[in-house]
Amino acid sequence: MTRSTLPLSRPGAGRPKRPAVEDGPGAGRERLLWRIRSGRGHLPTGVTLAQAAVPVALITAITLAATFAPVAVHLSPLLVAAPTATAAFASARFTAGTALAASAAMVVVDRHDGLVHSPLLPIHIVALLMVSGFVVAAGALHDRDLRELTQVRAVAEAAQRVLLRPLPRQLGSLLVACTYRAAAAHALVGGDLYAAARTGRATRFLIGDVRGKGLPAVEDASALLGAFREAAYQYATLPELAAALERSVRRHLAQLTESDPESSEHFITALLVEIPDEAPLVQVISCGHPPLLRGRRGQVTTLRMPHPAPPLGLAGTTPDAYHVDTFDFGPADTLLLYTDGVIEARNATGGFFPILERASTWTWECPHSLLRHINRDVDIHAGGRLEDDLALVAIHRTPAPGTGQGPHLPQQAHPTEARP
After folding, report:
1. How many DSSP H helices and E strands does the chain contain?
2. Environment class of residue 174 by beta-carbon count within 10 Å: exposed (0-12), middle (13-18) or buried (19+)?
3. Are the CB atoms for 84 and 127 separated by under 8 Å?
């Protein structure tokens, strides 16, 4: 699922869904397919005629072929293809009607072959009806299972969307885009996470990566997200917030250890980012997470933190255990937050994705375009196969209203800012 206009490679495109699932790429087409397969809807007129043409064409073609074939060649058993093919896309009622039409055509063909008074005619008809009955029954069972599956998927997807909420497209003077791609098939979330909160005259962001991937890491991710959404409004400084998150993660892991001893080895890498509205800067605390990238006037800079804290679950529980790094972040600048699912995406030869090499080719002025370019390049590099969850957040600072530019305060470049 993306949280922007990006397509979700999200495994699962084209999966049947119940109509209750209103959003997501391809949702309209998936709802239509679900209605077709379950027999609970009607197709547009053109599609209905195209479907009806399949059994009609089969019955007509076989009947005409039998008419011109030698009498010794009996083609009537081929008419079973009509109801069999129809069952693949039509309802049980339509398939049953096709079976009756095929039976009538079979009488015509067998009469042409001189089998009206032969025991072969009833055998042919009974065989056709038996096959049609099996096909209809199998289709009904398949549709029942499909309806149950779509219901389960709809509930699961709703729960996952509640866990990983989409970020607003604008927070104060910041334009925001984000995307998430889970490594586990049919999952919308996994071990990567992101969140944002407006706190007075500043905006705080969190991006993190749970040890492990896919659905087993969801519980750890949900614990950190819940803690951030509460603590982001309670603590005045980033070190205080980081210490509070560490305490929450430790409590969560301690509870898990009672039932799963291996959970004591879990941890979460994270970046805490605070962007004030009135100052052209960004404050960052790194807990073992990959550094940010900043795009500015065609140049891309890596914002490295010289004193990162250990990952959450292994870090300190007091504010003095965390170091805040401050970087320039002025109007028209763009920040990119990402998880290691991006930089560890491998190509066919095992090479990692060269994010710094590719960064200079991306469009940084629009956060949504930026994420589209990144996703496209990652797919090309990895051949569309992701071995790990992937999360991206792009943040673009707009100029102050009415001035054509944002606030400006003289700011020294951070000593660890490095260009690729």
Report:
1. 10, 12
2. buried
3. no
CA distances from 355 to 43, 291, 318, 361 (A): 46, 12, 34, 10
What angle, rounded to 10 degrees, do the helices at 218-231 and 238-259 form? 150
Residue 162, helix vs strand vs coil: helix
392, 337 Cβ separation under 8 angstroms: yes
- Name which of 238, 235, 188 is nearest 24 in CA terms: 188
Hey, what are 130's tokens?
A: 């038996």
Is pTM, for the whole model, over 0.70? Answer: no
Instruction: Single out the residue of 209, 313, 304 nearest to residue 256, CA to CA.
Output: 313
- 39, with CB counted inside 10 A (0-12, 13-18, 19+), is middle
Q: Which amino acid is at 227?
A: A
412 Cβ neighbours under 8 A, 6+ residues apart? none
CA atoms within 13 A on the CB side of 384: 6
On whether the CB atoms of residues 96 and 84 are closer than 8 A, the answer is no
> SS3 of 139, please?
helix
pLDDT tens for each residue of the chain, 420 residues long: 444 444 333 334 333 333 333 333 344 444 444 443 444 444 333 336 777 788 889 999 999 998 888 878 888 888 888 888 888 888 778 888 888 898 888 888 888 888 878 888 888 888 888 988 888 888 788 888 888 888 887 877 777 777 888 899 999 999 999 999 887 766 677 789 999 999 988 999 999 999 866 566 788 888 999 999 999 999 999 999 999 999 999 999 888 877 766 666 789 999 999 999 999 999 999 999 999 999 998 899 999 999 999 999 999 999 999 999 999 999 999 999 999 999 999 998 989 999 999 998 999 999 999 999 999 999 999 988 888 889 999 999 998 655 444 444 434 444 444 444
| Both structure tokens of 411 | 């700011």
Kindly report the length of the chain: 420
Amino acid at 303: L
Name the strand (E) or helix (H) holding 83.
Answer: helix 81-86
